[in-house]
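Look at a sample.

——
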Amino acid sequence: MPVPVANLRPILRASRPAWEAHLAQLFERSQFILGEQLASFEKEFAAFLDAAHAIGVGNGTDAIGLALREAGVSGEVLTTALTAPFTGVAITSAGCTPRFADVNPETMQIDPDDAGNRLRKKTTAVVPVHLYGQPCELDRIAALARAHRLTLIQDACQAHGATFQGKPFSAFSAHVAYSFYPTKNLGCLGDGGAIVTRKAAVAKRLLGLRDGGRNGGQVSYGPGINSRLDEMQACYLRAFLPLLAASNDQRRQVAARYDAALADCKGVRLLRRTPESVCHLYVIRAARRDRLRQFLTEKGIGTGIHYPVPLHLHPGFAACGQKRGDLPHAEKACKEIVSLPVWPGLTASEVDQVAEAVREFYKR
């Protein structure tokens, strides 16, 4: 039986009555931008994350970029080398220069010690990424930011519902950015994003920044861009949100089953996770990674690589001044990591099918 790396059909079926009702309300009112559906979702999402405010924007990249703009960040911004390129794109879009830190080889998260060693006089902010749904060492990163007077902007685009030491991410910084790309733990059916904050003043400024600097009229009072989460996507997000906690638990169960099945598999190195991870992706380090992927493809099993090239080696970020060999853990990891299927509704037998295929490859 084919096993895709991601599958949205189960959640669409389970939430259909809700999103159909929201869409009916939307079409009845016919306000498709900055209407009631978005306002309701922003309140519901903020409440789910134990925060005061959520500001819906066009995508996760804009969420990070707008957070940097609102905080007045300029100069150099430190982030991890192992993440989607859009983290770096967001930094450059805000007029800043990205600089990259290495990762902990056991978790793939940004290494706080290496991050501290990468700081320079022109470093003004740090953007840690909660990669694969796993919280990074947020306490240490926050302490680093305080000690060096850096603005802390969290990239939680893969970590919807995750917490750190029992606290919501918004307890550690004034800006937490989320993406609602369709395959996220909470995704819409197109692009979407949000910034979550506990500070009313920050939320008010972000509302203007996302809407061309306006304040509900046709006059622009300051800097801004056009990046608004549209009403139709809010309809789906409102329907999916009540299922998020349960679907995160299902992802954890899938990950735990993979862990047990692959713990003693030669050729596979498991990543270390905390119980607070929401397991957006299930990633292993695999010997002969590309051959393994080909073998799994031939068996109808989907895989992915998140991510094949560390950001400091992307031509688009050459201005960082870092070269091959500077971040050895991230560079080595990018040659080994592979993402196995994980999504709510993935059955135990399908997990066993994938794990057995991985074990079969290494037995050969």
